[in-house]
TrEMBL record, chain B:
The keyword NAD does not apply. This is Simple sugar transport system permease protein. The lineage of its organism: Bacteria, Pseudomonadati, Pseudomonadota, Alphaproteobacteria, Rhodobacterales. Gene3D superfamilies: ABC transporter involved in vitamin B12 uptake, BtuC. Keywords: Cell membrane, Membrane, Sugar transport, Transmembrane, Transmembrane helix, Transport. It comes from the Bacteria. It is a multi-pass membrane protein. It is found in: Cell membrane. Its main location: membrane.
Amino acid sequence: MTFKTVLLGATAAAAFATGAVAQDDKTKVGFIYVGPVGDLGWTYQHDQGRLAVEEEYGDKVETFYVESVPEGPDAERVLTQMALQGADLIFTTSFGFMEATMNVAQKFPDVKFEHATGYQRADNVSTYSARFYEGRAVQGLIAGEMTESNIIGYIGSYPIPEVIRGINAAYIQAKKVNPEVEFRVVWAYTWFDPAKEAEAAKALIDAGADVILQHTDSTAPQAAAQEAGDVITFGQASDMLDYAPKPRVSSIIDNWNQYYIDRVGAVIDGTWESKDTWDGIDAGMVEIGEITDAVPAEVKEAALALKDAIAAGEVHPFTGPLKKQDGSDWLAEGEVADDATLAGMNFYVEGLTGEIPQ
Amino acid sequence: MSNIDPILLLSAIIVVSTPILLAAIGELVVERAGVLNLGVEGMMITGAVCGFVVATATGSPWLGFAGAALGGALLSMVFGILTQLFLSNQVATGLALTLFGLGLSALLGQGYIGVKGPVVPDLYLPGLRDIPFLGPVMFRHDAMVYIALLIVALVWLFLNRTRAGRVLRAVGENHDAAHALGYKVVRLRLAAIAFGGACAGLGGAYLSLVRVPQWTEGMTAGAGWIALAIVVFASWRPGRLVLGAWLFGGATALQLALQASGGVQIPIEYLQMAPYLATILVLVILRAGRAPGSLGRPFHASS
């Protein structure tokens, strides 16, 4: 936690102290972030959602946030503090906040919680996530078409289902358009560490990769690819348009705005209920950033066609026949993966090399 | 294993270890003068942002590095004045300096997120760069890599071969005795702290200008703490410091390269641990030195 966040927390505390005296009936919405709001990636997009809520409801809501909260005991402390400060609704925006969210939610049954990318729910805990893998499939297609070395580098954060799903989705699509393609996955064990992400990207480029996909939050891999020259990348979580038209040739954008507006609205109306939301391209929660001219026109067209087909529900990125890495059958011809399997995905599909750390 | 290019790997090691080396050599001088400054991380990140801001404003990475050194030194003076003149607790003040530096850098860098800085060119060393193997590994880097090594060499010379360096060590070993001999303990320590701050600033700027290269909040992500640890494990000796930094950088670069190469059979958890384990292990085996006698103790001329 940075000094700034401590200060912000103190300011927020002061604000609530005075708020309680004034007896105002604003709905108070808290956010805890795993990175800084200036990461231009994951946390940045959540904060955009927070700002959208403020804009939508104006004086009716009050939002506050604490950034760069480590996943673990610190998160529980921050959440407890937020709940004590009178928050009505708290968004916990990282997978690793799951335990802390559940623990604090139990202690404060009147406070509502929304946990991103998790799978544990309670009467006052909802979960929400986006089907990023739909965007990964589109990236996989572009990556498979564009690679010349046939080596695609993938910077993974932690080996959790969300990340593994993305690797699988991208690989399946890349393999479809380019049977020669090979994925190299580097686990960085961090969501946000620009120096480490840059090193991971460089290691992959040194190993021959000419396409880098990332599931970490900073723009450092983009900068590394730009420096290396003939390497393409995709923006992660946020558009990362500063690196367009090359290396960044497209991106997956998480758009939480509408979801946050809806859920805060539900709290204001008193209609909030615990539920699980998992939206994708069709609902606008996952957007594909502009595909630049560095991508050949026909590849761009194919990518957009895939995106539209996924949005329309005609194509599911996990459609059989598919086998697991160990060669066992997973999906039969034409069969589509069910959400439960996807949510807990802990295996690679056939063709991927390397082991998932357990 | 087979598809890792040793030349690329070794050259990556040199680059990866440079920021830690810079920050650590500064802290080494500070600690040899008897002061424990735990604010390395804060001074590094402040250097990172100052360097980036100056470099983008002027278009010159070299002015950026100068700005970073100045920024780090200025911030370290906050620590210096508090601990040396007001005799505040060094551990607490150092920790506070880290928190302060992280917040201050986030504030200073607000307009610079997503901005691209000037490119730092590789130093062109005719002849040397064409030596087989050694050329690409050692002689195709940017100038800061060599400046960092030069600083280490100069620090070694200073501490072991000059009168001023020996005075500095005397102050670190026993400040009362040094004071009795008429040396200006506080003044010397302030100078050492400023040097430490400047080096940490350079290390931070190396991240924001060369290695990443961009400004992102919190981008040092713990490098300052690694630097602090390496100083201790190197038993306060410049030569071992280089070894420690290269070992750490080496294990870090190697584990990423192993993962990227595809055919790794070693579980990734062990690879992740490797940099820390290797560094601790080797430096503990080598360990012979002891901490400067007055390290972390407050000094006042009246005592």
